[in-house]
From TrEMBL:
One of its GO terms (biological process) is protein lipoylation. This is Bifunctional ligase/repressor BirA. The keyword Membrane does not apply. Residues 1-181 form the BPL/LPL catalytic domain. It comes from the Bacteria. It catalyses: biotin + L-lysyl-[protein] + ATP = N(6)-biotinyl-L-lysyl-[protein] + AMP + diphosphate + H(+).
């Protein structure tokens, strides 16, 4: 991993570039990094603010031999990689908000976007997009974002090296990914639950169909969130927004 790194000063989105390279047979582990994205993408069709040299904007191409329905595990794996890297700095206590936002003091500092090309249950390639806010100051964030988003710099008042963080993320990713391919998802799941935000607590769950309050019980082998349905049964949630009220 990271033997083949493609660096762009400015690009639309490293995801888009990664798709092009993956279609053109780029090897497993190819990494695309940009100093700036002009059209950074977040989950659910959101924009992702990717200002020049303020953070890490990168996409990793993987060609794992796992069934396509296991791909969500890779997103959760990536979240544990970021949490491990951040928690290696004594100042930071990262948490993961299901499915894959990284929080510092309750505010989002990183997001993960997984995209895949597969045929039936066979993966052709997976692209893991990582966005990590590093050097943003309060002034860099809009009034609206300030309540929900943060950066490493804002939480610590330290001058972070983007290069050092990239190296740590890639090294930790490689180790964790190899462990996953060898031993499966079990240890990753435990680690995820260690960092998981609001596990055991009541959260507000909003799916396409309905909205209700229920306890967040943990995650399943396939990456689903475990909870209790509106009518009181065990339920697995694959896609939803969760939120909470602090009390
Ligand atoms: C989210 O919505 O939380 C996911 C954000 C993912 C952003 C990263 S930045 C690098 C890669 N390129 C993109 O356009 N998006 C991902």
């Amino acid at each position: 991993l990271g033997k083949n790194i493609i660096h762009k000063e400015s690009t639309s989105s490293t995801q888009t570039i990664a798709h092009e390279h993956a279609r053109n047979q780029a090897p497993n582990g190819t990494v695309i990094i940009a100093d700036e994205q002009t059209d950074g993408r977040g989950r659910i069709n959101r924009n992702w603010d990717s200002t020049k040299e303020k953070g890490i904007w990168m996409s990793i191409i993987l060609r794992p031999e796992i069934p396509a329905h296991h791909a969500p595990q890779l997103t959760l794996l990536t979240a544990t990689v970021l949490a491990d890297v951040l928690s290696s700095y004594p100042l930071l206590q990262p948490q993961i908000k299901w499915p894959n936002d990284i929080l510092l003091n309750g505010k989002k500092c990183a997001g993960i976007l997984t995209e895949m090309q597969a045929e039936q249950d066979q993966i052709w390639y997976v692209i893991i997009g990582i966005g990590l806010n590093v050097k943003h100051t309060r002034e860099d964030l809009s009034e609206e974002l300030r309540h929900r988003a943060t950066s490493l710099g804002m939480e610590t008042e330290k001058d972070w090296s983007i290069q050092e963080l990239i190296q740590k993320i890639l090294a930790t990713f490689e180790k964790t990914y190899e462990l996953y391919l060898e031993r499966g998802f079990g240890e990753i799941k435990e680690k995820w639950e260690h960092y998981g935000f609001k596990i055991g607590k009541e959260v507000n769950i909003k799916t396409m169909k309905e909205e209700w309050k229920a306890p967040f019980l943990g995650i399943a082998e396939d990456g689903a969130m475990l909870t209790i349905s509106k009518d009181g049964h065990n339920q697995r949630i694959y896609s939803a927004e969760i939120s909470w009220f602090d009390n």
